[in-house]
Amino acid sequence: MQQRSKQEYHVSLIVQKFGGSSVADAESIKRVAKRIVETRKAGNEVVVAVSAMGDTTDELLDLAGQVAPIPAPREMDMLLSAGERISMALLAMAIESLGHDARSFTGSQAGMITDATHGSARIVDVTPVRLREALDEGAIVIVAGFQGFNRDTKDITTLGRGGSDTTAVALAAALKADVCEIYTDVDGIFSADPRLVPKAHKIDRITSEEMLELAANGAKVLYIRAVEYARRHGVTLHVRSSFNNNEGTIVYNPTDAEPFGPATVAGSQAQAARAADAGQEGSEGAVEEPMIAGVATDLSEAKITVVGVPDIPGKAAQIFTIVAKTGANIDMIVQNVSAASTGLTDISFTLPKSEGQLVLTALRAEQSDVGFTALQYDDQIGKLALVGAGMRTNAGVSAKLFTALFEAGINIEMISTSEIRISVVTRADTINDALRVVHTAFGLDAAEEAVVHAGTGR
What we know:
There is one protein chain. By secondary structure, the chain is α/β, with parallel strands linked by helices. It has helices spanning about 25-40, 55-65, 75-95, 130-135, 165-175, 210-215, 225-235, 265-275, 315-325, 355-365, 365-370, 395-405, 430-440; strands at about 15-20, 45-50, 100-105, 110-115, 125, 140-145, 145-150, 155-160, 180-185, 190, 200-205, 205, 235-240, 250, 295-300, 300-310, 335, 345-350, 375-380, 380-385, 415-420, 420-425. Strands 3-6-2-1-9-13-14-12 form an eight-stranded mixed beta sheet, sandwiched between helices. The chain has a four-stranded antiparallel beta sheet with strand order 15-20-22-21, sandwiched between helices. A four-stranded antiparallel beta sheet has the order 17-18-16-19, with helices on one face. The radius of gyration is 24 Å and the shape is globular. Mean pLDDT is about 90; it is low at about 1-5 and about 260-285.
């Protein structure tokens, strides 16, 4: 009788996350339940983090606005956390109807401990004792994403944007899962938003460093908080479609062991072949990654220009100290060379539109003290970011980017760079054209158009 290796007896623990579009209605929930059961039948332990159904969260926000102009943050969290509780219970029911034991847990029951900040709480600890007990008893575990619990206040909290992704990654880290599968309505992570660039190609594997840059610059499939958490805690992500069984995109830390999943080898070969076809260097199998991983765009930012700033030491520090007190998140900063005749300079920076008016008010209040001449506010800008770990070892990336934009008649207003990213700011009404010409210029176009199943990207 042939002996089996010890590895063959290994039971994998898989954490799966399903977004709102994947559980939008009863039929979608039943389809997701079947997929979860298939994973369980394959011999895996399964933990599922689930978002609210479809547009439930937006509908609850609208309701809150109708009954109170400024709803209390504590009550908003109580309200918004109801959406995930509905979907987790329905999903558990659907799994039970398929003959498998399933148990649903709220964020607090699952041990998601957060700080006390309502609306954007940060995870401080995960104690999944009840989840581990349920798994040991053979149950499929369903957890409400996006929510947690503060030990001091005893209040329910919500995690803010990307909360369900972050919940899934945190559970995977705490339970030492083999992989965290993020299910969405596209087949993985693409070289650009396939709704804007139909010829965008699916990326089979991408480093967490590259994914962080793409997420920070507007890519919508994964939120930056979840990617940061996964990288910090060594969680391998597998971004997949909930509408088919195709292999998705592996997001891995290159300093860790070989990334999980069958997409690894095939993905390396496919991506290397694409890089070779595009004439990119670094296409020797999986040894070197392709020069460019993808292109992302962001229309959520505005630009503030502080005009006529005295060009003396300390003024920039003074300006950004004022900005920092508002809690605004600054992205790009550009300071012009001062005019010799006046000794004045201009300082421009970008920030989220939602924080623009708050920062303008704070700066105007300190105008006489700082000594600048005027403020300009521009909310009609778009940011394009070109990302790729191969930039470190390949020359000419900037030249190719700027040439592509020049030939398309697109003007660049600001430039920012890192080791693996080049970002430019241009007009909002030209950003989609910029995205397409840059995508083509770097040989990222696929032969066939991408399939988007539901249309939201989550």
